[in-house]
Amino acid sequence: MDYQFSFPYIWGATPDLLDGLWITLIVSLLSIIFSVIIGVVCASLRVFHVPVLSSVAAGYVHFIRSTPLLVQIFFIFYGLASLGFGLSGFWSGVLALSLWGGAYNTENIRGGLSAVDKGLKEAAYSLGLRPIHYLRLVALPIGLRVCIPALLNTAVSVLKNSSYLQAIGVAELTFVAMDRVAMDFRTLEMFLAIGLIYLVIVLLLSTAVRRLETFLKAPFNTA
Amino acid sequence: MVNSMSIDQLAGSAISIKGLSKWYGDFKVLEAIDLNIDNGEKVVICGPSGSGKSTLIRCVNGLEEHQEGQIEVEGKVLEKDIKSISKVRAEVGMVFQHFNLFPHLSILDNCTLAPLTLRNVSRQEAEETAMHFLEKVKIPDQAHKFPSQLSGGQQQRVAIARSLCMKPKIMLFDEPTSALDPEMIKEVLDTMVELAEEGMTMICVTHEMGFAREVADRVIFMDSGKVVEMNTPENFFSNPEHPRTKLFLSQILDH
Hints:
The complex is a heterodimer of chains A (223) and B (255).
Chain A: H1 7-47, H2 53-65, H3 69-82, H4 89-114, H5 118-126, H6 131-146, H7 148-161, H8 173-184, H9 187-221
Helix pairs in contact in A: 1-2, 1-4, 1-7, 1-8, 1-9, 2-4, 3-4, 4-6, 4-7, 5-6, 7-9, 8-9
Chain B: H1 2-11, E1 13-24, E2 27-38, E3 42-46, H2 53-60, E4 68-73, E5 76-77, H3 82-91, E6 92-95, H4 107-118, H5 123-136, H6 152-164, E7 170-174, H7 182-197, E8 201-205, H8 209-215, E9 218-223, E10 226-231, H9 233-238, H10 243-253
Parallel strand pairs in B: 3-8, 3-9, 6-7, 7-8
Antiparallel strand pairs in B: 1-2, 1-4, 4-5, 9-10
């Protein structure tokens, strides 16, 4: 029990941590955006029972949810490379996290779309709007609002799970901490530091999304 | 009246239904319906719940698929593919029991959504048309509010205006006043009467018998998926032929 906790050590590691934080933010941001896009597309295929593609989407969701994320990351980074489709660690990471988040968002958004009042579909159709118009102009704007809390949940998970990418050498926050620990054995300082950094970005993300939700819900609330 | 009748006859059929049958599983909801509705004609359909009256008008714009028979709207046979159905639907307005306004859009945007998407019009044109019809249903001052901020009667009048913005040739009303508080029924019926007076072809599923008397050219009584009786309002109310019609009328009029 003679471990001496050192704040100056954390201070000294700040430039490295900021580099790692930057990569974490970029990877997460890209993955969150792609995962929402994947979710919108796959949920729409499911809700409209598009032949063949609906089953493909269902299989994809099932596969992602039933296998560990780390296995998926290794499969994409090492597996695809051995097939000749090698991607850099960064883009392997973005792809893996996007596919992972996309599967969860498919279910989130499917829930949101199913919550849209069936009467609105009939109203849209009776005006002559086609299914694609209904989806774009009515179902998604309403359904996405409904599932914002679930989307936030998945976005937070994507951000936190970006730490798995240290396993394929992406120099994100956790990788930086591991790297410093391997050199200086300052485990407590580094893991506390990155823990706090994750906590703060998740808090900021949650607050931003909650603001967005309040803003988007404004017209509904007056009922 | 005589004058408009002759114009109607010249103009021909707005809707022609031949041998229409529909099943839900084993249950036959519509049984060999034959019905012709002329341009400008107003038809009221009534009957007990489950008699198939809503299903019938929902078949006219393809919201329900039918298994047998043929429906022609404005001379076009209703096909099963979504493109041709959508074209027919754009000519046929529909008003629902529960209004079904788009809750995330302002009243004005509710009215301009379909024209902006389907017709080749500018936003300004679409908004002018929308304001014209919102004035017609007497709520232009609510244009920038959201549906949840309006009363039921106002919402239903917006729903009528929204349909009219597509300049339909036919309007279908599916129990438009059934979900309204009694004091809001009149404002919606007044709007519908006005529309009828302008010569719109209308099919209304309703139990508002006062409206039927005032506006309808024909009243249809349905029971168990069949047209039991079809007559002018005078004859329908004063001299119903079928015992089932008599029973129905005695139940809804005597209280």
